[in-house]
Structure formats: structure tokens, C-alpha cells
Amino acid sequence: MRRALLFLRPLLPRTPRTLSLLLLAAGVLACLIAARGISTLREPEPDAGQHVIRHMRYTYAELASLDTLLATLQINPFTPAAHTMLADAADHFYVRLQMLSGLSQGPFADDSTELKRLSVELMAGLDALARAGPPLNDRSLSELNDISSKVLRLTGDYTREVEARIDSVLREHARRATGAWTEIITSITLMLILSILSLSLFFRNRRMMDDLRAASARDSLTGLTNRRGFTDWATEREARDENARRRHALLVFDIDHFKAVNDQFGHATGDAMLKAAARSLLADFPDAGLIARWGGDEFVVAVPLSDLSLREIDERLSTRANKPSQVNGPSDARLPIAMSCGVAVWPDDGATIDEALTCADAALYEAKARQRGAHVFFREEMLDRQRLLQEIASGLPAALPRQELFVTYEPRICINRRALVGARAHLRWAHPGLSATLAAGDFMAGAREHGQARAFDSFLLATACETVARWRASIPEQTYVVVGLSACSLRDATLVEEIDRLLARSGLPPEALEIEVADEAALSRSEEVIETLSRLSEHGVRLALSTFGKGNGVLTLLARLRPQVLTINKTLLCESVPGDCRADVAALANMAETLGARTLIEGVATDADLDMARDAACALAEGPGVSPPLTAPDICAFARALRSGASRPARIATPSAT
């Protein structure tokens, strides 16, 4: 049967609907053929004269006897016995003639036939001769003998003709019966074949459905259970009796910086990282009840706590963090696979597995906020942070259309001259649902995840350029504005043209805008970022690299980008920091001066911080000790206060959301 199906496959329709219609049509055709055959068999045997031929055969036999008798009586017609024999023969012939005349078919049903005319004439002659009595008339016997011979010949001819017709009709009837049986057998065979084919297709489709069902619950890339398979597993576990349920630890993993790897090295490297992450989870949790790829770069591991304790899980997660897996990147570079993890327990933390997963997600967000590659066990207060993040995420799409975003400016001063040189632009969000003002750090991560970071950066750039143009028209200081952009904007090839348009529209020279590059963007080694920064520098836009003093160096980029400002964190100047570190800061300041750049100390809080910055030969300073972020009009007031010689300008309240 399998070979037959393989043979028929090229002939079968491509779509299941067409194949079903074809099988249905074939079945109906088989039923019609069988019905026609049965109908043919049920037809009665055709009447071609079978009842007539029986009488004709008896008649022929009697006529033959009569003809013989008449010939014999001519030899001795004068005895009484001859007369008696003739009378008996006449009576028999009369009875036969009456029977034939009563038939609806046959030669005696029509008075015009020659056979009936001669038979009636013969009957009349016999009757007359019998009535005359003995002796018999010799001449009459001879005439009756001639008539009987003719009637005998005509009866024989008619009988043979009818027999031939009957044979022909019966042969045709037999042929039709044979054809009907052939149709019935053919239809039965066809229906049997269709039944076998339908059953084969049914079982084949059922196997395919089983395979598809299994495939739908399996992730094609990693081979792990997918989200649907995990949901089926969770439903089956929750349906069990409470006494039969086992506590499970639900571990939600997320690959750190996965999007950056995908963007920088391509999807092939990203796929290899996902496969390696799946293999590492299988190796580290062989006793897990289920390991699933939840979607994207997220994985879920369900561990029965009867097989593994929470302390053992904690130890394994710590071991994973200390020895992360690696995957080969382009040019044989080894890329570490750092994974943050949130852990919750079902049913302790959630009555359902879905609720427990929500708790594990909240713990995962907490882990990412603390340190990439960390793991955190769920606590109840984490849900508040999760709800806050969800509230922020839900409001992001409407933040720009509803004009809920605004910009504040943190003054930057020259330490030696105590004069305003510029201001750093800070994006703020007056969130209506939270009735609070959010700093960029509270919502830009969500904006990046939802693809809105580029639009927010464009709003910040446009607002900052318009604002610095008004400053330059209002105060003598040739201030500039500092804008920090996300990595996605710096990778955008259209950023340079956008900045050129904004500067031209505001009537600003390129040096009135400074682009600050954070470590994450600058050190990503993305050629798109480096190319964008180089083009901006060529156009005359100021560049600032931040932040020295947090463990990441950007010295390799100095020669290529030639920035105007190097940012140093003020923690390197604290009294608790060894003197060598402060000496290093002084060396960095000298190196910056050699490169034509100036050093900025950020986070200055007191006059003592300013003094230490001055002693380290740093040129610029900003922070709460200089001024908190101000509104755009308040910057002008701040500049006038510095210009008037005040040792510390009057504090101006940070603008509220309203």
C-alpha cells in the first residue's frame, strides 16, 4: 500500500480540500455504478415468446402425428377404426387450435396469418370428414394431408424463428447480467480501494497532526520546548490533585546584551548564542522538570524542589555566573554568554504557574537592575517595581504625542573663571498616571525595548538646539548644549543629516552642540557608531567621551575621534581615594590638554570638590554643587548671577511636572 501511495502521489491533488472532493466524487461514482448493476440484475427475464414456443412445440408434435395419420389412413380408409382414429385426431387438433387462438401472442392471435387460415381450413376439413362417417373419402384424405403438411411446415418455420429470437434475447439478457455483475464487482473493488486509501490518508494525516503538534511545542532553533509546550506542561501540572502536586522553582533567564550582539555581529552569531545558551542550561540543570525557550532570548527552567533545593539552585546559578559559556563570533572572537536570572517558587509565590512566572519576571528585572549576569530570588516588593515598569511601558507610545516630555538643563561652568560655558540637556517625562516626573534613566531602557529611543533622542536634540539658540540671543556667553544620545541613534546613518538640519534651522554654529558618548556606545566597537562620530567631528560638532573612573577606558578612541571634552567621575578625587588615583586624574588632564581637549568633573557636590578639581588641573565642572538641573529660562538667570560675581548663585528649584 505504501508503494501504491508513493506511485499515486504525483497524480494526487496538492491541496487536502481537492483530494477530499476527489475521493468523495470517486465514492459517489462507485455507488452509482453499483446501483446500476443491482438495478440491472433485478430486471425480470424478457418475454420473447417463451410461453408461445411451448404451445407451438406441442402443436408441431400433434401436427406431425396428424400428418402421419392422414397419410396412413389413405392406405385403408374404409374401416370403422380409421374413422374413429380420424375423429380422435380431429378432437385433439381442435383443442390445440382453441388453446393457440386464446394466446395474446403467436401466429394464431392474428386471423390474417396463413398459418391460422390453413389451420382453420384443416380443422374444418377434419370435422367434415369425421361427420360424414365411414368409409372415409379417399380424395378428401389426400387434400387434408396436403393441408396438414403445409401447416406442419409453417409451424416448424415459425417455431424455429421464435426459438432463434428467444435465444438472441436470452443471450443479450445474460450479457447484460454479466456486465451488471462486472459493474458491481468493479464498484466494490473501487470502494475497497477508496476505503483503504482513505484510511491510509487518515492515519497519515493523524501522524502528521501528531508530528505538527509535537513540532508546535518544540523550538526549531534550540530543540527545547517552546512557550506553547511549556503552557501545556503547566496546564497538566495545575490540573493535578493538590496532594499530587510538587513544588517547582521557576527560573527565568535572559541573555544580557543579546540585541547588541545581534545588531553588531549578525543574526547567525545571535542564533549560535541562543543554541549555546540552551546547551548550557541543559548541562547545568539535567534534573530539571522542563527547560523551555520562552521567546527571543528568554528561557524558563522548571526544577522540582523534591530533586533540588533552593540553596543548590543558588549555588549552581553562582557557578554559572562565575564561568559563563562562550560562543565563537566573527574572526574567531570568543563572546561570553552572560545570563541574568529571576527565581520564583510555585505554588509558594503564585497560586498558578503563570502567576509564579510573573513573580520570576519581576525578580529578573531586579537582577538586571543590580548587575548583568546576576540572579535574584523573588520578594513581594519586587512586584511593585514590576507594576511601575509596566505602567511606564504602557505610557511610552503616548508620551510624545501628548507633549508629556520636556527638557531640563544642568549648568556646566569653567572652574577657573567660574563662568557658564554650557549646559547638559536632561530628558524628563511628566507621567500623568504616576503623577511624578521621571528621569531618562527611568524610562529610556523601556523606550529602547519598544523602539522609541530614536524618536525621543530626536525630540531632545530639536528642543536643545532651539533652547541654546535663545540663550545665545539673550546672554553674552557663547554657551553650548550637551546632548547624550543612545547607541541606536549613534548607529543611525541619518543622524548627521538630522543634526545639520537642526543647526541650520536654529542658526547655530556646529560648536554650539556637544554630543556626549557614553561608555556602552563608545566601547561597543560598532563601526556605525565610530563612523557617525567621525562625521560629526568633521562637521564641527563637539564630542565628549564619558566616563573615566568607572572601570572602562576609552583611550583607544581618543586619537581617532579627537573629542573636545573628557569626562571624569568625581569619585576619583574623593579624599578616600589614594593619592595615586588623583595623580592619574592630573595626568589625564594633561593628556587631554595635549590633545586639545578639556577635562570635565561630573557630580561635583561641594566647594571642596571644586577645589580638588582645580588642583587636578581639570577645566570644567557640573553637578549639584554647581547647580541642579534648571529650566531653559533659569539658565540665563544662572549665567547673570555668575557674571555678577556671586560666589555661589542662588539655588533655583528644579521644575516640577506641572
List the keywords.
658 residues, alpha/beta, Alpha-Beta Plaits, TIM Barrel, 3 domains, eight-stranded mixed beta barrel, five-stranded mixed β-sheet, disordered C terminus
Fourth-tier CATH superfamily name of the largest domain: EAL domain
Question: Pairing-aware structural class of the strands and helices?
Answer: alpha/beta
Principal-axes geometry comes out as rod-shaped
CATH domain class of the largest domain: Alpha Beta
Describe, in plain words, how this protein is organized in 3D.
This protein has 658 residues and is α/β, with parallel strands linked by helices. The protein contains 22 helices and 16 strands. The chain folds into three domains: 1-216; 227-380, Reverse transcriptase/Diguanylate cyclase domain (Alpha-Beta Plaits, 2-Layer Sandwich); 392-643, Alpha-Beta Barrel (TIM Barrel). The strands form three sheets. Strands 8-9-11-12-13-14-15-16 form an eight-stranded mixed beta barrel, surrounded by five helices. Strands 2-3-1-6-7 form a five-stranded mixed sheet, sandwiched between helices. Helix 11 (353-370) links the parallel strand 6 and strand 7. The chain is rod-shaped and about 185 Å long. The two termini are 79 Å apart. Residues 549-553 and 650-658 have low confidence and may be disordered.
Provide a short characterization of the protein structure.
The protein is α/β, with parallel strands linked by helices. The protein has helices at residues 2-8, 16-41, 50-73, 80-101, 114-132, 138-216, 227-238, 258-265, 267-284, 310-322, 353-370, 382-399, 440-449, 453-474, 487-490, 495-506, 519-522, 527-538, 555-561, 579-594, 607-615, 632-643; strands at 248-255, 290-295, 298-304, 325-328, 334-337, 339-346, 375-377, 405-414, 419-431, 436-439, 480-484, 513-517, 542-548, 565-569, 598-602, 620-622.
